[in-house]
Design a protein that fits this description.
With 172 residues, the chain is mainly alpha-helical. Helices cover 55% and strands 0% of the residues. The protein has helices spanning 3-19, 44-47, 65-69, 82-94, 98-110, 115-124, 132-146, 149-165. This is Propanediol dehydratase small subunit PduE.
């Protein structure tokens, strides 16, 4: 395979990462991005590549095979930004896909939460792993430390459902 073909595949993967997502949950919070995205802006990587930047401020043009091979692009450079996720939420909202838009908003909030903390929260949300107080403390932490209000509400809702369904630690 030649270098141009590999580079084209890398760009295609990045384009898909920034423009394709899956479904599930509620209405979108206000966006703080400098752009208002509409369905006609989809996919962002093709129609507005200048709007797409990574957490390390790399642009799509920075993702070349040469840059990857010379370590000018690393795994850290591949992280999506909350701004890009909020643009995706705006597009989903404009398309009438409110549940998908909410997922993008939740994901945007989670970019501020360290990976190890996300894993802890994931494990705590499994049935019979946490008490109601522990789940409420997680929700408070998400809201107060990371300003993740949507995610905090999600954990509070899970806690209420676990009480109702007897899925808390000690209920088994």
């Amino acid at each position: 395979m030649n270098t141009d073909a590999i580079e084209s595949m890398v760009r295609d993967v990045l384009s898909r990462m920034n423009s394709l997502q899956s479904e599930s949950a509620t209405p979108v919070a206000a966006s703080s991005s400098a752009h208002t995205a509409k369905v006609t802006d989809y996919p962002l990587a093709n129609k507005h590549p200048e709007w797409v930047k990574t957490a390390t401020n790399k642009t799509l043009d920075d993702f070349t095979l040469e840059n990857v091979l010379s370590n000018k692009v690393t795994a850290q450079d591949m992280r999506i930004t909350p701004e890009t996720l909020r643009l995706q939420a705006e597009i989903a909202k404009d398309a009438g896909r409110d549940r998908l838009a909410m997922n993008f908003e939740r994901a945007a909030e989670l970019t501020a939460v360290p990976d190890d903390r996300i894993l802890e929260i994931y494990n705590a949300l499994r049935p019979y792993r946490s008490t109601k107080d522990e789940l409420m403390a997680i929700a408070d932490d998400l809201e107060n430390r990371y300003q993740a209000k949507i995610c905090a509400a999600f954990v509070r809702e899970a806690a209420a459902l676990y009480v109702e369904r007897k899925k808390l630690k000690g209920d088994d």
